[in-house]
Each structure stands twice: as C-alpha cells, then as structure tokens.
Fold this sequence. Notes:
2 copies of one chain form a homodimer.
Chain A: H1 13-28, H2 35-42, H3 46-52, H4 56-81, H5 86-100, H6 105-116, H7 121-148, H8 162-177, H9 185-200
Helix pairs in contact in A: 1-2, 1-4, 4-7, 5-9, 8-9
Chain A binds a DNA duplex (30 and 30 nucleotides) through residues 4-10, 13, 34-36, 44-51, 54-56.
Amino acid sequence: MNEPRYQRRKEDRPQEITDAAYSVFAEKGYAAARVEEVAKRAGVSKGLMYLYFRTKEELFKAVVKNVVIRRLDTLLNTLETTELSSEEFLRGPLLDFMKQVPGSPIAIVIRLLIAEGQRHPDLVDYYWNHVVNKGLTAISRFIRRGVERGEFRETAVSDLPQVVLAPMMLAMIWRLIFAKRELDVERLMDTQIDMIIAYIKA
Amino acid sequence: MNEPRYQRRKEDRPQEITDAAYSVFAEKGYAAARVEEVAKRAGVSKGLMYLYFRTKEELFKAVVKNVVIRRLDTLLNTLETTELSSEEFLRGPLLDFMKQVPGSPIAIVIRLLIAEGQRHPDLVDYYWNHVVNKGLTAISRFIRRGVERGEFRETAVSDLPQVVLAPMMLAMIWRLIFAKRELDVERLMDTQIDMIIAYIKA
DNA sequence: ACTCTTGCTGACCGAGAAGTCAGTAATTAT
DNA sequence: ATAATTACTGACTTCTCGGTCAGCAAGAGT
C-alpha cells in the first residue's frame, strides 16, 4: 500500500546522473543547463546531486569523461583491430567512422569544449590525452604502415593525420550551427578520401 | 579645474560599446560575459548600455553583425576582384585568406555561434546569408570558372567548396580548443590545396 | 547668463539559480 | 522488534547579474 518514496541505489546514481546531465548539457550548453533540471531527469532531488558531485563544474567534467570515453572506446577498438590493406582501411572502416562522428555524442562534447574549454584547462588536457591524441596517432600509424608496405609514398599526410579528419570537423561544426541547411556529408568525405588516396598512392 | 565627468558622444558610443562587447565575448563567451564589464571597457555606465541596446541579446547580435561584417568585407572584396588563373588564385589569395582566418575575429564569432547559435536562430540566418553563403558561392564560382576555361575537370569540388575550406575549419577549432598544442597550419592547408589541384586539374 | 533638452550616471530592484542543511525514511545490524 | 546508520529530500539561504529609473549635468539654443 505505502510505496517507498525512493530507493537507495548508491551504485547506480553516478551513472544515471551523468547520463541525465549529458542530455541537459547537450540541449542547453553548460551555462544554461540547470542543476535542478538534471536532477529531475535523473529522478533524484537536487540535494542528492551535491552528494555525488561537489559542484556543477565537477558534474560537467564527469560528463565529458564518462559519457564520451565510454562511447568512443568501442569506435577506437574497431579502428585498431582491423587487418586490411591500408587503402581498404581508409575507404572502409575509417570512412564509416568519420561519417558517423558528426551525428554522435562526440560532436556534442566538442561543442561543450569549444564553448567552455577556456575555463577548464584540465578538462581539455584530459580530452586531448584520451581522445584526440589517441585518434590522431592511430591514423598516423596506419598511413605509415601503408608507406612501409610500399602502398603509399612519403607525404605530409604521414605527419598530418588532420588532413584526413578535416572534412569530419567541418561537417561537425556545420551540423552544430547550420543544422537545417543540408550538407552532403557522404559526398564530402568520399571526395576527401578519394583525393587523399590519389595523392599518396605510390 | 573642474573637469567634466563625462562627454556626450552619441555618435561614437555604439561602435565603442560594440568593440568592448566583442572583446568581452571573445574572452568569456556569451553567458559568462557581464554587461557591466562591457560598460567598464567601453568607459560608460551600465545604464547607458541599455539606452543603446535594449537587451544583452541585442548587444550580442550587434557584435556579430558589426564587428565581423566590417572585417570580413575587405577580405571578400580581394577575393572577388583578383584576376588570376584559377590555379594561381587557389594557391595565392585564397590560400592566404584561409591561413589568416583561424587567427582572426571570425574564429571567435564561430565559437559564439557554436555555443549560442541554438538560442538565436535569426542570428544564424544572418550569419549564413552574409558570411558563409557568400564565401562558399564565391569559391564555387572560381572553381567553375576554371572548369569552363578547361583548366580543371568536372568534379564534386565544383558543388562542394566545403572541401576547400575543411582544413581551415579544423585549424580554427584546433586553435579554439587546443591553443597550446601546435598544429602546422601552413603545411596543412598547403597540402590540402596541393591535393585539390592535383585532383581537379584537367 | 539662463533656460532647455537630453546624454548619461549609478544606486537600486527582483528573478532565478547554485549550493546548504536539518530532518526523514529506507535499509542494515543487533 | 528496535536501534543505528546513511542515502536521500526539499525548503531555504545567499549571491549574482540583467534590467530600471529618478535625477544630474553637459552642451545647445536663445
């Protein structure tokens, strides 16, 4: 008859709060996000928020760390474990990866970092170490492997994997700002990969 | 002896306030920017702010419109008026333009748009019409002129000037987030232009 | 010189949101 | 059953900041 008004679930709370916070930050950005709104979506009281995260800022950092890393690691794993020729790899898994990023939570986190990064240098460091650097290094490694195997010639692309990712960045920003105006993301990235392969092929 | 406490300068105020606002928004972003801080830098009282701009939001829009357009128009003009072969144009003025954007106020405005665009759709429209669309169209026109002249072959790049600008976007975001970590912007863009020309040359 | 107009000031107001804490009730220990 | 523990609640406090307005004084008009 008398249902308990709440359950104690110490273990699950951090994850649930973090997920709720992600969705609020994604919609509103950091500054406009209300801690009380996060509490509501997580199904807890405002007070409880402060038992798990000392401040709103700490909550923000937890979001970037948990949510993103969790979803990114699967992606990076497939990147590391495939065994294809370098060209097949560029045209297959890497291209697919690039196409899906602009619509993924990573794009949201990039927005938060662009907007708030200045005030959270340690968060930027963390993101650099655990996401960007990892990804760039992985791509570089593949290009270099292609060079070693004689598939590719030595070009600036070996040192600048950013060349590969540039259209992905543009597509991300495009969607964040100009969501409505359509951009042919597929064709954009296909073209870039075509161009790169033509350019570096031995 | 008795210096006047202030001067009346109705004409100059909007510009001065707008410039001050730009510098504060650039440093703090929209949400964290304080109207009083803008007033201080503009050398006026907080009250005066509201005689020239009805709300903080209107001030924000004025910044995007005035500051950016003013500085962008000179750039776009040189883009339109040069008379070089298409390849020379890509390797010369356009490349120079792309190299200087990531360090210019445009990058700052892009940050503001990414962070706050969701809540200011009309601002995004304005920026689209007066900056992005203009720029993209100008580039498309040049590529197509090259095709007509027989310098280039018909490729996706004719419809997707975004291919050209992609590394510029990456460099911009890179600097906004990872200011410290160096990125060889010159080499990145040189490579992209090299690649593109090799790809589209007839 | 003496109004008169109006550009300008700065103390003030009120909304709203981050963060607190005394108390409550779910769970565990005895 | 009863007591002890602690996860949890939500009303409250405090403070910040966008926006207001009554009055002041700079400069124009006469």
